[in-house]
Amino acid sequence: MQSDIFDTILWDSQSSTAAIRKPAENAPVKNYTASEITCNINTSKATQTIAIAAGSMITMALGENKTIYHPGPMSIYLGKAPGKVVDWDGTGKRWFKIAEWGPTLNPFGFNNILGKSKFTVKIPKEVPSGEYLVRTEQIAQHIPGYPEFFVSCAQLKITGGGTGSPSKVSIPGHLSRKNDPDLFVDIYWPVPKKYKARKNFYKLAFDGLTAHLLGSGSARVPRIFEVIPPLSCQV
């Protein structure tokens, strides 16, 4: 079944659960305009901030040997803390997306996401050094018109970074029914022939971001795209 929590972060042959801000409730977030959409509901304090070099790979993993159960897109964001990340609640226009997984067409479906438990992304080398939250967001679309959000955050300290300055969003504030209509459609009938949300939703932070493809080396990911190519994900 679906796990509510990405409770482990892996990097450089290491792993941590202590860097995760764990929510108190095993339930999805349903109000995408409320503060709990940032890192989930009633989260406990993380006791670790992991140091990782820009350009490194990280993997976010579901807990309890669970996998993605409900269909819908998956994204990973970075949010730069204004100071110490341990003191930041995620507020402000400080978030940018570094990875996303979406549906395939012909036939339409999220089979490239369903059943997976780990999602891997490269921290762009252009990301400035500093302390960050890394945020996972899987949007479950099994109830037409009422998306559910499975989110969690981990604490990072990025070293050896660059001078990139991507456009940023606030969370909440990154989604709306008006600007992201495909998040509210019936994905079962009529079967979607296309799946497109506003540019800000399906936009990666950096042009030409290199995304790791499972078993296929790497590929250049366009800045804006309609159908999201799969990044690394596995059972």
Automatic annotation (TrEMBL):
<dbReference type="GO" id="GO:0008810">
    <property type="term" value="F:cellulase activity"/>
</dbReference>
<dbReference type="GO" id="GO:0030248">
    <property type="term" value="F:cellulose binding"/>
</dbReference>
<feature type="domain" description="Auxiliary Activity family 9 catalytic">
    <location>
        <begin position="17"/>
        <end position="195"/>
    </location>
</feature>
<dbReference type="GO" id="GO:0030245">
    <property type="term" value="P:cellulose catabolic process"/>
</dbReference>
<keyword id="KW-0964">Secreted</keyword>
<dbReference type="GO" id="GO:0005576">
    <property type="term" value="C:extracellular region"/>
</dbReference>
<keyword id="KW-1015">Disulfide bond</keyword>
<keyword id="KW-0624">Polysaccharide degradation</keyword>
<protein>
    <recommendedName>
        <fullName>AA9 family lytic polysaccharide monooxygenase</fullName>
        <ecNumber>1.14.99.56</ecNumber>
    </recommendedName>
</protein>
<dbReference type="InterPro" id="IPR005103">
    <property type="entry name" value="AA9_LPMO"/>
</dbReference>
<dbReference type="InterPro" id="IPR049892">
    <property type="entry name" value="AA9"/>
</dbReference>
<keyword id="KW-0136">Cellulose degradation</keyword>
<comment type="function">
    <text>Lytic polysaccharide monooxygenase (LMPO) that depolymerizes crystalline and amorphous polysaccharides via the oxidation of scissile alpha- or beta-(1-4)-glycosidic bonds, yielding C1 and/or C4 oxidation products. Catalysis by LPMOs requires the reduction of the active-site copper from Cu(II) to Cu(I) by a reducing agent and H(2)O(2) or O(2) as a cosubstrate.</text>
</comment>
<dbReference type="Pfam" id="PF03443">
    <property type="entry name" value="AA9"/>
</dbReference>
<keyword id="KW-0119">Carbohydrate metabolism</keyword>
